[in-house]
Amino acid sequence: MWVEQPTEEYQRVLRYYHRKKRRVTEALLFNLAKYLEYLRLGMSPQEAAKFGFVHNEGEDIYAVDQSGGAKLRESRLYFYIDMEAEVLYTLTIGDKDEQQRDVLACRELKKAIRQERQGNP
Amino acid sequence: MTTQKRYHAVADTVRDVTGDENLAASVERHIAERRLIMALTAQRVKVGLSQQEVATKISCTQSKVSKLESGKDADCPLGQLVQYAIAVGANIRLFLVPHGQKRVDQVKMYAALIQRLLHEMVDLAGDDLHMCDGVQKFMTEASYNLGKIVEGAEARLPTQTREPEAEPLQVEAQEMEPPYHEETKTQSRKDRAPLPAGT
Question: Is the pTM of this model over 0.80?
């Protein structure tokens, strides 16, 4: 069964967003919860990424946006999907205008997670 | 890098990381209010239908299907949900359960349903030896797999709380009643042993 495993970076940023951008955070979390529920309903990560609120950022990294909340600043909550272990690693949250920088950071986080998993399977 | 902690729900992560019970409850409610519609939407995607194709099948517009999929279960008329389900090759089964039903009672309810279905399979097999053989094989597999499911959940408990000799799940006669009433369509055999009480 699919589970969520947060990175330390995600926890830090989530606390910040929760304090400073409560409504955006809520909208992002709603969409993340929906995505996780779709995986549990047997959809593949690619199928579940067809919904408008999910974006495929490449290399098994996806992001949900804040859509569904009215007039909110465009933001992304990034996660990495480990299909084999059925784990969704939540990586970070960022504003849309910092997307490129965030995606690069997520790729580094993904590498570190994979190394961590290989060292500690 | 990652915490070693894994969460079964986004709301649990929120609760643990931010300590905001209201936000966690809000995330839980958001999903709970859309469970049926999300299941139907997932079924649509799995069978490879577009919103437009479903709209054509149920004689409405694509935007209406889109609106239905982004809404809450309670905001959608049951008839529309049934139509949608049929269009995506599914049926909706409703369970009436007491408000605030405990998880233990939910497990017992599903156990009762499984018991009933297994007995119906035996009845369907009748005297057909080929079918009886198939049902027998299925029962062996089901017995193994159901045991594995319980073991898998139990294995997640902290070691010190595990009982070496756990009490077997007692499903009492009254609790064995299936959650809804329906006519049994299978033929009963007079010469077969009667079903256990409550089935």
Answer: no
The reply to whether A18 touches chain B by the CB within 8 Å rule is yes
Between CA B135 and CA B122 the distance in angstroms is: 7
In tens, the pLDDT along A51-81 reads: 889 999 999 999 999 987 678 889 999 999 9
Report CA B91 to chain centroid distance, whole Å.
13
Looking at beta carbons, which residues of chain B come within 8 Å of A50?
Answer: 45
Measuring CA to CA, which residue among A71, A89, A65 is closest to residue A11?
A89
Whether the CB of B21 is below 8 Å from some CB of chain A: the reply is no
pLDDT more than 70, % of chain A: 98
The amino acid occupying position B13 is: T
Chain A: nearest CA to B90, how far in angstroms? 14
State pLDDT tens for residues B11-47: 999 999 999 999 999 999 999 999 999 999 999 999 9
The alpha carbon of residue B146 and the mean position of all alpha carbons in its chain are separated, in whole angstroms, by: 14
CA B45 to chain centre: 19
Which of A43-57, B148-162, B169-183 has the highest average model confidence (pLDDT)?
Answer: A43-57
Q: Hey, is the C-beta of A63 within 8 angstroms of any chain B C-beta?
A: no
What ipTM, to 2 d.p.? 0.91
CB-nearest partner of B6 from A3, A14, A22 = A3
Can you name the residues that pair with A82 across neighbouring β-strands? A87
CB burial string B179-193: b at 16+ within 10 A, e below: beeeeeeeeeeeeee
Whether B13 contacts chain A with CB within 8 A: yes
Q: Hey, what are A3's tokens?
A: 């589970």
